[in-house]
Amino acid sequence: MTAGRYVIALCGLLLLNDVNSFSAMKMSANQVDSRRAFLNNVAATTTAVVASGFVTPSPALAVGGQKKVDAKLKGYGLPAAIIPNGLTPLCYVYGKGANRFPILVTFSHPFDWVVTTPSNDVNGEDGTIQAGEYGTGDTATFYVDIEAGSVENIESKDKEFFSKSVIRAISQKGDNMYQNFKITNVEEGQSGFGGQKYMIVDFKYELLTGAGFEVDRRGVASITSQGKAVEVLWCASTRQRYKKLEQTLRNIASSFRCYTDGLNFSEELIEA
Questions:
Q1: What is the tens place of the pLDDT at every residue in 66-125?
Q2: 57 near 134, Cβ under 8 Å?
Q3: Helix axes of 239-255 and 32-50: crossing angle, nearest 10 degrees
Q4: pLDDT in tens, 109-120
Q5: How far apart are CA 143 and CA 152, in angstroms?
Q6: pLDDT tens digits along 41-57
Q7: Which residues are CB-contacts of 107 (< 8 A; sequence separation ≥ 6)?
Q8: Does an H or E element contain 188, and which?
Q9: In a 3-state reduction of DSSP, which class is residue 206?
Q10: pTM reported for the whole predicted model
Q11: CA-to-CA distance for 115 and 129, rounded, in angstroms?
């Protein structure tokens, strides 16, 4: 089924599920916002499935569960994972292919979120580490900003710097997928192992869908610079759901840690 037909079919199912409630509505001035909210919800669900590219997530290869994750981190001489209440940790080496440099990534996420990891073949590695509830558009996605390069004293950077990194992260599927992006707050997060600096960045934007909808998105990102790049874990949802999920997304972002220098990844890498 093509993406366009999938969008139409999904919208049809969503509309069918709500047809009884819709038929009982009278389109008075006070009810316009309700109808708009419903359509935005349809758009958000459709966009989450189609735009994310994870209609059928592949099995995750990340290490999961506190005992296994902490054991893996301990094997590298690193501290235990940060696990806020209600979340479960994952750990994965991003950059196993010859076309990337290796980064040990860990963060925690809700138990029922689906985890996806990069794919590797003879051409190298493709994709990223992501956890999410794709039907509702709630996601946490790892991004490596190679263009930004290695950055010292990342806590001294201004909003424009962080804006560029987050925009690159959210626009992986094209610059025409968003509009009205804005950084709303930047603050220094809790330092990591060896004094690593992590910046917590709040942002919002409008996601443009192939179905002609605009979906308000809100998010929070944790940004650091390890090795020869800037690393971003950006967590986002629709504006409506963000009111409920804000603390969860902040907890995910605050649990993010990544490591590169001084680690021996030889057993993790895939030979070219």
A1: 999 999 999 999 999 999 999 999 999 999 999 999 999 999 999 999 999 999 998 899
A2: yes
A3: 40
A4: 999 999 999 999
A5: 18
A6: 544 444 444 444 343 34
A7: 82, 89, 90, 131, 140, 142, 233, 252, 253, 255, 256, 257
A8: strand 178-188
A9: strand
A10: 0.79
A11: 7
